[in-house]
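hiii so um. not sure if this is the right channel but i have a protein structure encoded as tokens and i wanna go backwards to a sequence. like what aa goes where. can anyone help
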């Protein structure tokens, strides 16, 4: 599938590229980001970046991908990603995202989520979006609420990270 480029205020959403690995390592090798993400290890290595970009670009090359991830590009560098997972056409998708620490609290992620939701409704006819957050990730919860998500519940021991179990909030946006 061809992933389009979407324009936000001061950034673009574009397909992931193999040459994004340098920026992934630069920004994801950060405890403040890793602690909020279920699948991002700390330290984040070159091997992690290579594996992830290879898997992501391969999946997005499929006719009907189950995962689509956009790079958030600002000033020519990848500063985050926003993606849809477990895509079920004409039904639902799960949302996941991260943003490099120097770009927090600038409205970038709120705008990026708005763009990807609009794209997914148009391209995949998604009716229900879900997102999970750690209980302590109030920044992520705020971004979801700004995009019209509602907290649907508490998921006990839903996330396993570094050998520990964490509760999560489930958010959803239904059309």
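sure thing!! here u go:
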């Amino acid at each position: 599938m061809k992933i389009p480029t979407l324009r936000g205020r001061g950034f673009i959403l574009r397909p992931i590229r193999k040459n994004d690995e340098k920026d992934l390592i630069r920004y994801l090798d950060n405890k403040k980001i890793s602690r909020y993400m279920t699948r991002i290890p700390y330290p984040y290595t070159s091997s992690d970046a290579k594996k992830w970009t290879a898997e992501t670009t391969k999946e997005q090359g499929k006719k009907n991908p189950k995962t689509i991830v956009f790079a958030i590009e600002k000033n020519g560098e990848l500063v985050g990603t926003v993606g849809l997972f477990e895509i079920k056409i004409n039904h639902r998708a799960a949302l996941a995202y991260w943003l490099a620490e120097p770009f927090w609290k600038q409205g970038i992620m709120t705008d990026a989520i708005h763009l990807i939701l609009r794209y997914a409704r148009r391209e995949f006819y998604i009716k229900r979006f879900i997102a999970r957050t750690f209980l302590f990730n109030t920044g992520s919860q705020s971004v979801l609420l700004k995009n019209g998500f509602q907290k649907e519940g508490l998921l006990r021991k839903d996330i396993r990270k570094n050998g520990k179990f964490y509760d999560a909030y489930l958010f959803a946006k239904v059309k």
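oh and The chain has a mean pLDDT of 96.
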